[in-house]
């Protein structure tokens, strides 16, 4: 069994360990009537969505090499559920997290389910019991369940009841799976009453993170995460970006991601170089739990002054406002960096890829990349932007960064 290694000091260091979820039976249980309540955008064709996701995982497996691991959250959960304490903890937590679902009446029956039956219930909501629960189609978007910062993991507090069971799943896996045993004292759990999802946290450097105050991460969530990171980790600067509380930009990584240490793909109407006065940096102050703050004109100036280097902003969708809106809608700004200057995005966002090409990125298809390296190993070198066939996956409204939870990265 591979051991988990918490080590993320940059958004763009070479990927070594990542947790994903290839969509399964839960996706086929989404109906047109309940998709909005489940926070899911569309009805996906499961077999095609799986092929697209498996192709993405093949890219990761080639790039992490023999030293790395692509973990499936389903495998981790199944293995954790072999422990009775893990099953009991899962049931206790979902009962507490779902006060309106009347799960308390089924608590004893849930404890009688076999590990396989409880696993199936966890993902699909289906069980032998006279119990109605919803499936978890959003488990596809593993990024939101937690965020690794340095040598610590911050667990999510889902903002909606539709995703609360996902927060319980990652909590149980991190707390009970043997692969996490060496890191249990470095798992950060937030206080009740705040919300935080991992899509709002980006690791800019070994001492700086960005956190979105968004539709899904509350101001209290930002402050709670900031306090813990500033007191317990190597982080010295927490840059908060306030976003409109809208589904179209539900997390910071829907409008801003790193492609390399000094290149970021942005959605210009919200990440505006002229300034929106929506960026604040928090730092530790004298005395326990005290913070100082500094207001910046915009994110660009905040990054350059904090990181002490020049940062290039690449417009998602190019310079045309309509193309920017169209490609942000299909996750053009949600690129995932596999190594410095090596990114993965959806093929349909052509204008964004054209912008990457202008910056010197070689644009290739996922199939072409894998074919080229079929008989050889891959090592970082040139700048590459990889186009993924995401025609089904993109209908769920989440890009490659949304679908990945990096656990470990190493400097190339």
Number of domains: 1
Shape: globular
Report the CATH topology name: L-arginine/glycine Amidinotransferase, Chain A
Order of helices and strands: EHEHHHHEEHEEEHEEEEEHEHEEHEHEE
How much β-strand is present in the residues?
15-25%
Q: How many H/I helical runs?
A: 11
Structural class: alpha/beta
- By CATH, the superfamily comes out as L-arginine/glycine Amidinotransferase, Chain A
Low-confidence stretches: none
Q: Main sheet: which strands, in order across?
A: 6-7-8-11-12
In round numbers, the mean pLDDT is 93
- Distance from first to last alpha carbon: 25 Å
Number of strands: 18
Provide the CATH top-level class.
Answer: Alpha Beta
Q: What is the annotated CATH architecture?
A: 5-stranded Propeller
User: What's the helical proportion of residues?
Assistant: 25-40%
- Radius of gyration (Å): 20 Å
> What does the main sheet amount to?
5 strands, mixed
Describe the 3D structure:
The protein has helices at 46-64, 73-80, 84-97, 107-111, 115-124, 164-176, 219-232, 299-307, 321-329, 350-358, 366-372, and strands at 14-20, 69-72, 146-149, 152-155, 187-188, 201-205, 208-213, 237-242, 256-260, 263-266, 279-284, 291-296, 312-315, 336-339, 342-346, 362-365, 384-388, 405-410. The chain has 11 helices and 18 strands. The strands form 5 sheets. It has a 5-stranded mixed β-sheet with strand order 6-7-8-11-12, with helices on both faces. Strands 14-15-17-16 form a 4-stranded mixed β-sheet, sandwiched between helices. The protein has one domain (14-410): L-arginine/glycine Amidinotransferase, Chain A, CATH 3.75.10. It has 412 residues and is of the alpha/beta class. Strand 4 (152-155), helix 6 and strand 5 (187-188) form a beta-alpha-beta unit. The radius of gyration is 20 Å and the shape is globular.
């Amino acid at each position: 069994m591979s051991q988990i290694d918490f080590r993320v000091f940059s958004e763009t260091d070479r990927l070594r360990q990542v947790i994903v979820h290839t969509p399964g039976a839960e996706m086929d249980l989404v109906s047109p009537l309940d998709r909005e309540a489940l926070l899911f955008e569309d009805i996906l064709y499961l077999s095609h969505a799986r092929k697209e996701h498996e192709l993405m995982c093949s890219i990761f497996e080639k790039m992490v090499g023999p030293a790395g691991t692509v973990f499936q959250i389903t495998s981790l959960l199944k293995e954790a559920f072999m422990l009775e304490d893990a099953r009991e903890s899962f049931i206790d937590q979902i009962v507490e997290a779902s006060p309106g679902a009347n799960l308390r009446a089924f608590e004893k029956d849930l404890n009688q389910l076999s590990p396989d039956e409880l696993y199936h219930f966890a993902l699909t909501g289906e069980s032998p019991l006279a119990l109605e629960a919803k499936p978890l189609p959003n488990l596809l978007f593993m990024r939101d369940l937690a965020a690794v910062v340095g040598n610590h993991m911050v667990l999510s507090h889902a903002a909606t009841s539709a995703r609360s069971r996902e927060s319980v799943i990652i909590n149980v896996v991190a707390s009970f799976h043997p692969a996490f045993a060496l890191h249990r004292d470095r798992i950060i759990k937030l206080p009740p009453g705040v919300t935080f999802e991992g899509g709002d946290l980006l690791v800019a450097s070994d001492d700086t993170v960005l956190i979105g105050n968004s539709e899904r991460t509350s101001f209290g969530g930002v402050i709670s995460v900031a306090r813990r990171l500033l007191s317990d980790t190597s982080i010295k600067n927490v840059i908060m970006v306030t976003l409109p509380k809208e589904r179209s930009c539900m997390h910071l990584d829907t409008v801003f991601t790193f492609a390399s240490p000094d290149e970021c793909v942005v959605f210009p109407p919200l990440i505006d170089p002229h300034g929106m006065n929506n960026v604040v940096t928090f730092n530790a102050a004298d005395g326990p739990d005290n913070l100082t703050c500094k207001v910046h004109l915009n994110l660009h100036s905040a990054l350059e002054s904090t990181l002490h280097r020049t940062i290039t902003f690449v417009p998602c969708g190019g310079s045309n406002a309509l193309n920017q809106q169209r490609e942000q809608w299909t996750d053009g700004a949600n690129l995932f960096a596999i190594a410095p200057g090596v990114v993965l995005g959806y093929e349909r966002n052509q204008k964004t890829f054209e912008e990457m090409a202008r910056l010197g990125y070689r644009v290739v298809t996922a199939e072409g990349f894998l074919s080229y390296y079929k008989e050889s190993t891959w090592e970082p070198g040139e700048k590459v932007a990889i186009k993924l066939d995401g025609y089904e996956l993109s209908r769920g409204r989440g890009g490659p960064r949304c679908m990945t939870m990096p656990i470990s990265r190493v400097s190339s």
